[in-house]
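Late entry, evening session. Most of the bench is empty. Finally got around to the prediction I had been postponing all week. Sequence below, unchanged from the version circulated by S.P.
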Amino acid sequence: MCCYLGVDIGSVSSNFVLMTADHKLLKKVYLRTQGNPIRAIKEGYEIIKNSLEPGRDIISGVGTTGSGRHLAAVLMGADVVKNEITAHAVAAASFYPEVKTILEIGGQDSKIIVMRDGIVNDFAMNTVCAAGTGSFLDQQAARLNIAIEQFGELALKSKQPVRIAGRCGVFAESDMVHKQQMGYPLEDIVMGLCEALARNYLNNVANGKKIESKVVFQGGVAANAGLRKAFEKLLKVAVYVPENYEVMGAIGSAILAAEKMIHSEKSTCFKGDSFILEGDFNTSSIDCNGCPNQCEVVCIKRNKQALAFWGDRCKKWEASLASQSEAKPVEKELILA
């Protein structure tokens, strides 16, 4: 059976899905990146590999997305590399063909995608302030001594949410602490925080965007039922959360990989088990002083062999890989050092 692997590498989570050509989900993996995307890629792929039926299931295409999509593409051999906007839009539209607005909140950033007639019409991202993102909610849950998994359910018990300033993560936290000191019930504080975060999202990320139904809420933070309720209260429309909300980016990249490979005469670029699991990968940065741009070039190596460079505007470092196999022994040693 032909299977398609979707990989979404983010700053907080690394997600993997295995799908069939007709979009049936066979396996999903949600891991914390923990500042080490290479390790997360290896661990996630190994779990996916172990779910394959030997002699039956074949990975026929790979798609990557997320902030670490280029890194994942080099390590695994990707057929499709797309940004998060495209991947999330494709995934949402595949399950909700009539979707018009996608609210996506991840570990470190948030975004809104406006869909019209099944294609992306407009979008906006917030990568500056962490207020409302998964990492911020993790911090506040820890401060309140609540398991993050219970955060949303506790919010739903609130009868009178407390008004909390949510225009900034720092202000929201200090205001929440103040409300604690005043003795407000914990569930009212938590629901008040959810409403503050929803207001912050709508006033900043969604500012100037026309939000129309059907509205789909995805990303890891969609697990927070309190935040979903807050969005419904403010928007006055139903907000739908997909069953696999936390891995929608990976699902979108798997769908894109399937669409490409089904209509392609070429075989997949997937590099296989031995390359991914047995290689010793590491990344390093190079300050290039070859011109006034002074680019910071990122290099990834496998067993001390350079696989890819990115960050160089003139692309001379990328070009050096093309001539690597033709280089003289001394020159080649310099390239790989």
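Two things to note before I forget:
Residues 325-337 have pLDDT under 50 and may be disordered.
The CA atoms of residues 190 and 318 lie 49 Å apart.
Will write this up properly tomorrow.
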